[in-house]
Specification:
The structure holds 2 protein chains of 2 kinds. Chain A is α/β, with parallel strands linked by helices. Chain A is built from 14 helices and 5 strands. Chain A has helices at 2-17, 19-39, 58-69, 82-91, 104-110, 125-147, 169-200, 202-208, 213-241, 251-275, 279-296, 309-315, 319-333, 337-366; strands spanning 47-53, 73-75, 96-100, 113-121, 154-162. The longest helix of chain B has 16 residues, at 167-182. The chains are: A alpha/beta, B alpha/beta.
C-alpha cells in the first residue's frame, strides 16, 4: 500500500508541476460551460428588423411600436420603398423585414382581414423560423387584445423566406464547415509540421543553411495552401452537386476569399508554432484555441446577435465570423465585394498582424 | 589568414555574459576540440560562428567572412551536424541527400553524382531507397556527417556529434573526422568525451564564458601537470 501511495503522490506532483495540464484540467470545463451556456441559445434577442409601413394608420403604427419595443426585435434600418428591402438584406443590415400593405386599418375594419408580409433572411433557417414565430405571435396578441377572440378580424401574416426558400439547413452548414475544416487543416497541420522540425532537431540544420527564415516559413506552408485549396473546391463541388447549395455570386471572388482565409488560418498555425516547442503543445493550443471559437463564436451554429455583449465583442477577433459573413454573402445572397469589402479588409488585417507577430517571434528565437 | 579568426568576441544576454571576450584562430585542416561544462558558453560561441546569433562586441570571421555583415556568406561555406539527428526519418536516404543538396543550391546533376559517390564511399549503395527510420543508429550518423559535407564546406561544425553512441561507432566516426581534416576541411567539434579530446589537434576549454586553456592535448597536460585530458578538464572546471 505504501508503495502505491508513493506512486499516486508522484502522479499528483506531475500534474501540479505542469501548469499547462492544470490549466486544461480546470480551465477547459469553465470556458466550455461559459461558452456553451451563454452562446447556445435557440431563443433570439435584438433581431435586426426593419418595418416598411405603406399604410401609416393608427393600427400599423401601434403594431410597429409593439414589434420594435419587444425585447426580440430592434429597428435596424429605415425603409422607404420595396426596393430598399432587397438592399438592406444584401448589406446584411437586417434579418427580417415587415411590410404592412396600404390601407391596412381600413381593410381590417371593412373586410375583417389585412395582410402583413414577413420577409426573412433564411440563410439561417432555424433563426428565420423562430423570427417568423415571434413576429406572428406579437401580431396575434395585438389582434386578440384589440378585437377580442371570435370577432372574425384577422391580421394575416404572409411569409417569404429569402435566399433559402426551402429552408435547407445544409445551406447554413456548408459555409460554416468550410471555415471549420480550413481552420483545422491549415492551422493544426502547419503548427504541427513546424514544431516537428524543432523537435527532431532538423530546424537547426535549416537555420544554419543558406535558407532565410522567411523562405523556411513560406516553404513549410506552401504545400498546405495548395492542399487546402483542393479541400475547398471539393467541398464546394459536393455542396453544389450533392446538396444543391447554390453559388449565386461570383465564383472567382468566392475562391479568392477562401484563399485569403486559408492564408489567415496558416498564419495562425505559424504563430502557434513559434510559441510551442513540441507537437503536443501545438496540437493542444490549436484545438483549444481555434476549434471552440470557430464553432461557437463564428455564427456557424448559434446566432451571434443573441449572445451576451462580451461574447459578441470576443467574436470580432474570430476570423471565421468574418469569413462566414463573406461566404454566405457570396454563395447565398449573391452579393459582391461592394458589400463585403469591410469583412475582407478585417481578414486581411488579422492575417498581416499574425504574420508580423510570428516573424518577430521567429527572429527572436534566433537571438 | 586563418579560416576562423576570433578576437575579443563577446555575447551578453541582458546583464549575463554568456561569452566573455574570447580570442582564438583555427587553421585550414585543423581539428579544434571545443570543450566546456554545460552552460560554459560553448553553444553560444558556436551559434555566433555559424551566423545564427549576432555578437554583442568583438570581431570574428569565418572563411574570411564577417559574422556581423556576411552571415549568409558564412552559411554557404560551413557544414553543421548535431547530436540530434539531422536527417528526415520519413524520407529515404536518396531523398535526404537530394533535399540537403537542394537547399545549398547544388545542381541536379551534381547531387546525382555526389549521391552515388557518397553511398559508395559509405558502403550504403544498397540502402539508397530505404527510409532513414529503417537504418541503424551508426549508419544514420555517418550518413548525416557525409550529408553535412555535401556542399564542400570549408569548415565543419559538429555539436556533440557522438552523444549516445557506442565506443566502436564513435571510433569509426573519428576516422571520418580525420579523413575530412586530411582533405583540408577545418573541423570544429564540441564534445563531453575526454578520450575524444585527445584525438583533436588542439583543444579549447571554456569556463564561465572565458577560454581558460587552449593548446595541443600534450601541451595542456604538461601545463596543468595532468596525466590525461580528463584531469585537465576537471582541474579547470573546479577552479
Amino acid at each position: 500500500m505504501k508503495t502505491f501511495q508513493g506512486f499516486v503522490t508522484k502522479e499528483f506532483l506531475h500534474i501540479f508541476r505542469d501548469r499547462r495540464t492544470l490549466l486544461i484540467l480546470f480551465g477547459m470545463p469553465i470556458i466550455q460551460l461559459i461558452l456553451f451556456g451563454f452562446a447556445i441559445r435557440n431563443e433570439l434577442n435584438d433581431v435586426q428588423v426593419a418595418v416598411l409601413d405603406l399604410s401609416h394608420d393608427h393600427v400599423t403604427q401601434a403594431l410597429t411600436g409593439e414589434l420594435l419595443h419587444s425585447p426580440y426585435f430592434e429597428g435596424a434600418a429605415v425603409l422607404h420603398s420595396e426596393q430598399d428591402i432587397e438592399a438592406a438584406f444584401q448589406r446584411g443590415a437586417i434579418k427580417e423585414a415587415i411590410l404592412f400593405e396600404p390601407r391596412f386599418a381600413q381593410r381590417l375594419h371593412r373586410d375583417g382581414t389585412a395582410q402583413v408580409m414577413l420577409i426573412t433572411d433564411a440563410t439561417d433557417p432555424n433563426s428565420a423560423q423562430t423570427m417568423v414565430a415571434y413576429t406572428s405571435s406579437i401580431l396575434r396578441d395585438y389582434q386578440t387584445r384589440t378585437f377580442g377572440t371570435g370577432s372574425g378580424v384577422r391580421i394575416v401574416p404572409e411569409v417569404q423566406m429569402r435566399f433559402n426558400p426551402e429552408l435547407k439547413s445544409v445551406v447554413l452548414f456548408v459555409p460554416g464547415l468550410i471555415a471549420l475544416i480550413l481552420m483545422l487543416v491549415c492551422a493544426l497541420m502547419t503548427s504541427i509540421t513546424i514544431t516537428r522540425e524543432k523537435e527532431r532537431g532538423t530546424m537547426e540544420i535549416l537555420l544554419v543553411s543558406p535558407l532565410r527564415p522567411l523562405q523556411i516559413i513560406i516553404g513549410k506552408v506552401l504545400p498546405y495552401v495548395l492542399l487546402s485549396f483542393i479541400n475547398v473546391v471539393t467541398i464546394l463541388v459536393l455542396a453544389r452537386f450533392v446538396f444543391g447549395v447554390p453559388v449565386r455570386g461570383n465564383l472567382v471572388l468566392l475562391l479568392a476569399e477562401c484563399l485569403l482565409f486559408i492564408v489567415c488560418a496558416l498564419a495562425f498555425g505559424i504563430f502557434i508554432s513559434t510559441r510551442a516547442e513540441t507537437q503536443q503543445t501545438a496540437t493542444m493550443i490549436s484545438l483549444a484555441g481555434l476549434l471552440l471559437p470557430t464553432v461557437i463564436l463564428s455564427g456557424f451554429i448559434f446566432p451571434i446577435a443573441s449572445m451576451p455583449l462580451p461574447l459578441q465583442y470576443l467574436s470580432h477577433i474570430v476570423p471565421a465570423k468574418w469569413f462566414l459573413i463573406v461566404v454566405r454573402g457570396i454563395m447565398l445572397k449573391g452579393v459582391g465585394l461592394e458589400y463585403l469589402w469591410q469583412e475582407t479588409l478585417i481578414l486581411v488585417g488579422i492575417t498581416l498582424l499574425l504574420l508580423v507577430a510570428s516573424l518577430r517571434n521567429f527572429n527572436e528565437r534566433l537571438e | 589568414m586563418s579560416i576562423i579568426e576570433v578576437n575579443d568576441l563577446t555575447r551578453m544576454f541582458g546583464s549575463f555574459t554568456a561569452v566573455d571576450h574570447i580570442s582564438f584562430s583555427v587553421e585550414a585542416g585543423e581539428i579544434l576540440g571545443f570543450l566546456g561544462a554545460n552552460g560554459a558558453g560553448k553553444t553560444t560561441a558556436m551559434r555566433m560562428l555559424t551566423g545564427l546569433l549576432e555578437p554583442t562586441s568583438g570581431e570574428a570571421t569565418v572563411s574570411g567572412f564577417d559574422v556581423y555583415t556576411q552571415p549568409e556568406k558564412i552559411k554557404q561555406t560551413i557544414g553543421y551536424m548535431s547530436q540530434r539527428f539531422s536527417l528526415y526519418e520519413d524520407l529515404t536516404v536518396a531523398e535526404n541527400i537530394r533535399f540537403y543538396g537542394g537547399i545549398y543550391g547544388l545542381s541536379r546533376r551534381a547531387i546525382k553524382e555526389k549521391t552515388t559517390a557518397l553511398l559508395a564511399r559509405l558502403d550504403l549503395s544498397h540502402a539508397r531507397d530505404l527510409r532513414i527510420a529503417a537504418l541503424p543508429l551508426g549508419w544514420r550518423q555517418k550518413l548525416a556527417f557525409s550529408v553535412a559535407l555535401l556542399h564542400d564546406p570549408r569548415v565543419l561544425f559538429l555539436d556533440e556529434p557522438t552523444g549516445g553512441v557506442d565506443p566502436i561507432t564513435r571510433r569509426q566516426f573519428w576516422d571520418l573526422i580525420y579523413e575530412t581534416a586530411g582533405r583540408g576541411i577545418t573541423v570544429f567539434v564540441t564534445t563531453h568525451y575526454m578520450d575524444e579530446a585527445e584525438y583533436c589537434d588542439r583543444v579549447s576549454i571554456m569556463v564561465d564564458g572565458k577560454i581558460e586553456a587552449l593548446g595541443t592535448p600534450a601541451a595542456l597536460k604538461t601545463q596543468f601537470a595532468a596525466a590525461s585530458m580528463d584531469e585537465v578538464f576537471v582541474r579547470l572546471a573546479r577552479a
